[in-house]
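On clarity, I found the account of how folds are encoded harder to follow than it need be. What matters is that the chain and its backbone geometry are given together, residue for residue. For the editor and my fellow referees, an illustration may be useful. For illustration, here is how one protein appears when written out as sequence plus structure tokens:

___
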Amino acid sequence: MRDTIDMAREAGIPALGDIHLELTDLTAFEALVRADEREQGQKWFDAVTAQHKQEILAEREACAKLAQSTVCDTHIPTGVKIYGTVAAKAIRARLGDQK
């Protein structure tokens, strides 16, 4: 985050000893502070989103490995045999959707 004193200087606000301020000085300062907050917020959001995406991909791969190790299972309502390798391929196919 940028230093507030630097942003005040950039907005044209005089040194602290001079207490006469124009509304345009404060408006310019407000705009700089808001822009800085938006930029920092976006950086944080992007970092958290990237981390979350990696966690999802890792969890899906763990599920695919577990499914792949299953030799055969029967879907109880239908009686259809589900092979672990088929389930693992389906899970990994969803991984491609997230990359």
User: Anything to note?
Assistant: The CA atoms of residues 34 and 40 lie 10 Å apart. The chain has a mean pLDDT of 79. The radius of gyration is 28 Å.
